[in-house]
């Protein structure tokens, strides 16, 4: 069986915080994230090291040491959302356990039962219940009859897709040198977005990334196509920079992360492998601090040529 990531659904009881005030809640900062990470310490040492290898190194540039788990708020790209999502007395989260973690989903759920944490202002945020969804991440796998990476078209050929990406939680995608130099976040190019997803796909879902040929010579050819194609006439953006509060259950001071929210659009060509990558993208996250929920997005790709069938993934497993 091919290893694949899994989902845990969490209902977080918020007695003092309005459910809709997502950007004002500290749960994606230190509060819930830190509490969950401490629960992982109860796992056997080998499992904890595979789940969160970031504690084994002090090298911030070691991409292989990224956590293999991620907290994200709704909306989630799942076909049949749980009925209890209509319960507005709780904040609903998805905890993604990626294939690279090698952690049985039942063990992860057992480690989180009864979790409590203290938030900013010292109020308690209680995990009311952890639901186990015993299925792999709902992402597409290539079909034998589908050419996943055909040759890129000529740059002069009209675009085949209108791609829209909506950033729902702060995005900060930049090189380490720009971050160290204090540069603020800038809207990514299409190539920058897809490259970030490819890097995380290889790290977190390596079997899936290999199946779609991500990073192969054919994929590199498409990267060159997107690099040459991008111009003001093929892209549009409406983003804004915000400060997102980071609150810790062990520190009184509230810190702030800077990131982008808003929408980007491209008129481009998207092979099936790129559409599949965008499909798994919300589970992977983009840019800095993805395990805290940053870099979460929705997307839509509309075919522009009615005579050309949409090659993108349409069905969920």
Features of the shown structure:
317 residues, disordered C terminus, four-stranded antiparallel sheet, globular, 2 domains, five-stranded antiparallel sheet, 8 helices, Alpha-Beta Plaits, single chain, alpha+beta
What does this structure look like?
This protein has 317 residues and is of the alpha+beta class. It has 2 domains: 6-136, Alpha-Beta Plaits (2-Layer Sandwich); 161-303, Alpha-Beta Plaits (2-Layer Sandwich), CATH 3.30.70. The protein has 8 helices and 9 strands. The protein has helices at 27-40, 45-51, 105-112, 176-180, 190-204, 206-211, 217-229, 272-284, and strands spanning 6-13, 69-72, 90-97, 116-118, 124-136, 161-171, 235-246, 255-268, 297-303.
